[in-house]
Design brief:
The structure holds 2 protein chains of 2 kinds. By secondary structure, chain A is α/β, with parallel strands linked by helices. Chain A has a domain at 4-258: Amidase signature (AS) domain (Amidase signature (AS) enzymes). Helices cover 36% and strands 13% of the residues of chain A. Chain A contains 15 helices and 11 strands. Chain A has helices at 9-17, 23-35, 48-63, 106-113, 161-168, 185-191, 225-235, 279-294, 307-325, 345-356, 359-371, 377-398, 424-428, 435-439, 469-483; strands spanning 43-46, 75-79, 117-122, 174-179, 194-197, 217-222, 265-269, 298-302, 404-408, 444-451, 457-464. In chain A, strands 4-6-5-10-11-9-7-8 form an 8-stranded mixed β-sheet, with helices on both faces. In chain A, strands 1-3-2 form a 3-stranded mixed β-sheet, sandwiched between helices. In chain A, helix 8 links the parallel strand 7 and strand 8 (298-302). In chain A, helix 2 runs antiparallel to helix 3 (48-63) and helix 9 crosses helix 12. Chain A is globular. The relative contact order of chain A is 0.14. A two-stranded antiparallel ribbon of chain B has the order 1-2. In chain B, a hairpin with a 2-residue loop joins strand 1 and strand 2 (92-93). The chains are: A alpha/beta, B mainly alpha. At the A-B interface, helix 9, helix 10, helix 11 and helix 12 of A face helix 1 and helix 2 of B. Chain B: Belongs to the GatC family. Chain B: It is an enzyme of class 6 (ligase). Chain B: Heterotrimer of A, B and C subunits.
Chain lengths: 493, 100
């Protein structure tokens, strides 16, 4: 009998469509795998009935000879940042504990319309603020991977750490993620899976709990480039309910996948060779160049001179937007209310937000409030937005000389949970290679490249021109085919 | 630039987050570390550079001028809007008394 949990999106979709097995069998297998993996803490709530109902609908359609959709019969995990009608949506925060939206996010609705079902809502860093999945109100998520010879729980990355852990552990064939400054790519790299953040505006932000609206972008996380292409097609599309939604057709990325890179130029940004980057990461980068050369591409040096300023600029812009977005949590309209005895309205706001937000969220709201405050706005926020322009211009110039950029996804492999907690800054540095593409709104993907000497996965990052998800996916496919990444975490949960 | 304990207390109050002494003590050095680090942005010559306003060029659309064009964001959904309110009364959001 097929072990359905080893199958990815494409195999499940094609197997169900071809009648090799039913969607219900697949959903039951994954529901059981989810139920048996509580130790990973990847899910905040599980929704086995949702997965079964979607599967039954797909099987019924097949019996009638109807089209099953792009994701027909595929059960997925939904990052708990997407509003799901009638199903608790928390952003991994206490302030939204118990919140059951009366509406469905556009991205999740698109997935259900494409035939997917939901295994549950995936844990994440609180309000997507974090790089290790240690800021969730609902507890840390563990990576299924362990460092060779040790038993310490490892970080699945963040903020989409429930997503990465679930997909790597094969308790979900794919999951949604969101990426504000690396939150799809860094966890994908840490867990040996693929994840793509499309061009800003491809996926609707409607119904996604807002963190930093000018940066937030949803995307798929799955175990292959093909699976990411399929799922991104299902997620993306113009949405009149999102003012920044791209009014463009969704290309057929899956059909146009090609690992033949003849005539393509791959840029290697010299500024990404930073102090503190693991030697193994640099080695994997070299291997990536060789793989893309082997696929027919020409490797060229490019320069992104403002790279070192991208991360500090991000840590002004993202908190500034967060402080504004999170002002909505006031204990009045939804979510937690903390009303001390005899308290007035202002006291209620302050008490509610003190009780409902975790430390990292408070830190970022305070930073954001400070940099936007009178007297500091120009020195911090305006300067950061000018640097954002320079970072975007760097990419524009580089893309005059190349078609796609190859870089590491992260400066290190995963680390044990609790090992970087001392200082928020060291944690921020995890996203040093991921943030520039976010600031420029560009499509960017992480694909697994190899395992290091500790047995931990390393990822390579591809960054493309605006709207050129295809170029990113194709280069990713060329790496996937040559890297032959087959490693799986040994089951301990 | 660094912030004092009093300034952090002021910012917390502006952000409507109640903070006790211990939390303030912890927050001050953490915020100062972050602010010291972002200070490096001052090195960059940004004269003549426009601050970014839209990352992907996109002109703002006008929706069709019709009532309830998009049902999810239109009127007539009072019960849905109030469904998650911690204290909904008589079809309104309830708040502590604000007028003496």
């Amino acid at each position: 009998m097929t072990d359905f949990t080893q199958l990815g999106v494409k195999d499940i979709r094609d197997g169900v469509a071809g009648g090799d097995f039913t969607a219900r069998e697949v959903a039951e297998s994954f529901n059981a795998a989810v139920a048996a993996a509580a130790e990973l803490n990847a899910f905040i709530v599980t929704t086995p009935d949702h997965a079964l109902a979607a599967a039954d609908a797909t099987d019924a359609k097949r019996a009638k000879g109807e089209d099953l959709g792009k994701m027909g019969g595929v059960p997925i995990g939904m990052k708990d940042l997407f509003a799901t009608k009638g199903v608790q949506t928390t952003a991994a925060s206490h302030i939204l504990e118990g919140f059951k939206p009366e509406y469905e996010s556009t991205v999740s609705q698109n997935l259900w319309d494409a035939g997917a079902g939901m295994l549950g809502k995936l844990n994440l860093d609180q309000f997507a603020m974090g790089s290790s999945n240690e800021t969730s109100y609902f507890g840390n998520v563990s990576s299924p991977w362990k460092k060779d010879g040790t038993n310490a729980a490892m970080s699945p990355g963040g903020s989409s750490g429930g997503s990465s852990s679930a997909v790597a552990a094969r308790i979900a064939p794919a999951a949604t993620g969101t990426d504000t400054g690396g939150s799809i790519r860094q966890p994908a790299a840490f867990t040996g899976i693929c994840g793509i953040k499309p061009t800003y505006g491809r996926c609707s932000r409607w119904g996604v709990v807002a963190f930093a609206s000018s940066l937030d972008q949803a995307g798929p996380m799955a175990r292959s480039v093909e699976d990411c292409a399929i799922m991104l097609e299902a997620m993306a599309g113009f949405d009149p309910k999102d003012a920044t939604s791209l009014q463009m057709d969704v290309p057929n990325w899956e059909a146009a996948l090609s690992a033949d890179l003849k005539g393509k130029k791959v840029g290697i940004p010299k500024e990404y060779r930073m102090d503190g980057t693991d030697q193994a990461i640099l080695d994997s980068w070299e291997q990536g160049k060789a793989m893309l050369r082997d696929a027919g591409a020409e490797i060229v040096d490019v320069s992104l001179p403002h790279t070192k300023y991208a991360l500090p600029a991000y840590y002004i812009i993202a908190p500034a937007e967060a402080s504004s977005n999170l002002a909505r949590y006031d204990g009045v309209r939804y979510g937690l209310r903390d009303l001390p005895d005899g308290a007035g309205l202002q006291d209620m706001y302050a008490a509610t937000r003190a009780a409902g937000f975790g430390d990292e969220v408070k830190r970022r709201v305070l930073i954001g409030t400070y940099v936007l405050s009178a007297g500091f706005y120009d020195a911090y926020y305006t300067q950061a937005q000018k640097i954002r322009t320079l970072v975007a211009q760097d990419f524009e110039k580089a893309f005059a000389e190349c078609d796609v950029i190859l870089a590491p996804t992260t400066p290190t492999a995963s680390f044990p949970l609790g090992s970087l907690n001392e200082d928020p800054l060291t944690m921020y540095l995890n996203d040093v290679f991921a943030v520039p593409a976010s600031l420029a709104g560009l499509p960017a993907m992480s694909v697994p490249a190899m395992v290091n000497s500790d047995g931990l996965p390393l990822g390579l990052q591809l960054v493309g021109k605006p709207f050129d998800e295809q170029g990113v996916l194709n280069a990713g496919l060329a790496i996937q085919q040559r890297a032959g990444f087959e490693a799986q975490p040994e089951k301990w949960w | 630039m660094s912030v004092t304990r009093e300034e952090v207390a002021k910012i917390a109050s502006l952000a409507r987050i109640k903070m006790g002494d211990e939390e303030l003590d912890r927050m001050v050095p953490e915020l100062n570390n972050i602010l010291d680090w972002v200070e490096q942005l001052g090195e960059v010559d940004t004269s003549g550079v426009e601050p970014m306003t839209a990352v992907i060029p996109n002109s703002l659309r006008l929706r069709d001028d019709v009532v309830d064009a998009i049902p999810e964001t239109s009127g007539g959904r009072r019960e849905d809007v109030l469904a998650n309110a911690p204290a909904a009364e008589h079809g309104f959001f309830g708040v502590p008394k604000v007028i003496e």
